[in-house]
Amino acid sequence: MKRFRISAALLSAALLISLFSGCRRTQTPPDTGSQPSASQPGAEDSSTRPGGAEDQYLPNVMFLSGPTGVGAAKLMADSEEADSPCLGSVTIAAANDEVTAALNSGEADIAAVATNMAANLYNKTDGKITMLAVNTLGVLYILEKGDSVQRMADLRGRTLYAPSNARGANPEFILSHLLLQNGVDPGEVEIEWRTPQEITTAMVSGESGVCMLPVPAATALLLKDEGVRQALDLSEEWDSVSGTPLAMGCLVARTDFLREHPEAAERFLEQYRASIDYMRDPENLEEAAQLAARYEITASAAIAGAAIPQCNLTFITGEEMRDTIQNYYTVLMAADPVSIGGSLPYDDFYYIP
User: How confident is the model at residue 84 (pLDDT cuts 50, 70, 90)?
Assistant: First the structure.
């Protein structure tokens, strides 16, 4: 797990002029005549907020390495390099469990997690987690060293390498659903759960093999061994049987944070949207790749450069977010209720200002 603790004393000077300036956002405050003092009813202790203003609260955030974290790289750079930071602490985590623990403890205010994990958290905490946005669509691929897999049914009777951190998460449930929809009992596919590094080694060293990987791990394997090919795009497979977007990654926040710091939440979403827009713009690909590698969201800039166009970065909020993810959750619920914590989240799960 990589941590970047950001404080004003450690920041460098100005940010280079770019398409994104969310962290340097300026506002003209309304003329209210006076500002509430700390002694007034409802006033909060200003010692935890620069300047003592609610609008200046800096949220503590966590992002996963890999596709769900890629969209935040520009925001992280701007916060680190600007005169005034946008964020409090920033943590790059390797697994959903690290993020959920930080949310549960209050160490993190906002985090990027897998969408099924978001529903699980909501159900297990009695609504103490709220979804802010869908940030990543489908990023899963079936790769093969050979030419025998042309459709999902071709996986019947095969051994499939899959990343161990995908077990019990979106990828496992997606794979099972797609197999069933294509007439294959998931039990007919032998899954070997391994780390991405172990999968890469097995695929490169063998004369044949089949694996399921997300980008950028899939991209890294394709770059390392030209004998490996992309056999199936699971986003396309999902679209063909489900009729709903494959929404794999999202932003969530502690419900208490949203209640206590609504302005900070809105400011963060504005800045994060701009970061997503920057990172997915083809004209910014070279710098975006450098940023993803700089914050160890991907292993290298070369891998990031090849992977970012396949990361399916998005920013879906409000009622569109609710409708998109509810459709996805309905499919997961029918496939395996455990995948989303046993029940569909209520409407209060969705952040719709």
Answer: confident
Q: 31: buried, middle or exposed (CB in 10 Å: 19+, 13-18, 0-12)?
A: exposed
Is the C-alpha dihedral spanning 34, 38, 44, 48 positive or negative?
Answer: positive
Closest CA to 326 of 255, 245, 254: 245
pLDDT tens per residue across span 47-82: 344 434 455 899 999 998 888 889 999 999 998 887
pLDDT digits (tens, 9 = 90+) for 266-314: 999 999 999 999 999 999 999 999 999 999 888 899 999 999 999 999 9
Give the pair of three-digit tokens for residue 246: 């494959």
CA 69 to chain centre: 5
| Global pTM exceeds 0.70 | yes
Tokens describing residue 264: 């900070």
Kindly calculate the radius of gyration of the chain based on its CA atoms and give it in whole angstroms.
Answer: 21
